Amino acid sequence: MAIELLASLGYDTEGFRSKSWDEFAKPDAPRMDIIITVCDDVSGEACPYWPDHPLRVHWGIPDPAAVQGTDAEKRAAFMEAYRRLSSRVSALVNMPLESLDAATLRSRLSEIAIMDGATDLALVSNAA
């Protein structure tokens, strides 16, 4: 349903795939500045070694794939997850990242994490 939703919104998903954390631990992997988890199930997992110690934050969003019910209810859950993630990503990309020190960036990412619809774990993980 996620692919179906993205296609209906005009996103081209061709060539994209889910990746293992291991791919980002290789020496030739892209450098990560910020690691954002969105699924409560993986937020506490041990991560591979990240060179340069990127900032990690949890933006918990209820998992739409866990919704039981009719196809319409499931599609609505995927749309709600998309809406919540989209607003968070928009807040991130509109931040003046270059001018923020690490502590301020961490604080701003935590503020984003507790926006509308955050899971209980995200609220606790990002409490001031």
CATH topology: Rossmann fold
Q: Major sheet, described briefly?
A: 2 strands, parallel
Side by side, the strands of the main sheet go: 1-2
Structural class: mainly alpha
Shape: globular
So what's the CATH class?
Alpha Beta
State the domain count: 1
Distance between the termini: 35 Å
Q: What is the C-alpha radius of gyration, as a whole number of Å?
A: 16 Å
Which second-level CATH architecture applies? Answer: 3-Layer(aba) Sandwich
Low-pLDDT parts are: none
H/E topology pattern: HEHEHHH
What this model shows, in words?
It is built from 5 helices and 2 strands. It is mostly helical. It has one domain: Rossmann fold, CATH 3.40.50. The chain has a two-stranded parallel sheet. Strand 1, helix 2 and strand 2 (55-58) form a beta-alpha-beta unit. The protein is globular, with a radius of gyration of 16 Å. The protein starts with a helix and ends with a helix.
Compile the SSE list and pairings.
Layout: H1 2-8, E1 34-37, H2 40-43, E2 55-58, H3 71-93, H4 102-113, H5 120-125
Parallel strand pairs: 1-2
Considering the chains and any ligands shown, give keywords for the structure:
128 residues, mainly alpha
Q: Short description, anyone?
A:
The protein is mainly α and 128 residues long. It has one domain: Rossmann fold (3-Layer(aba) Sandwich), CATH 3.40.50.
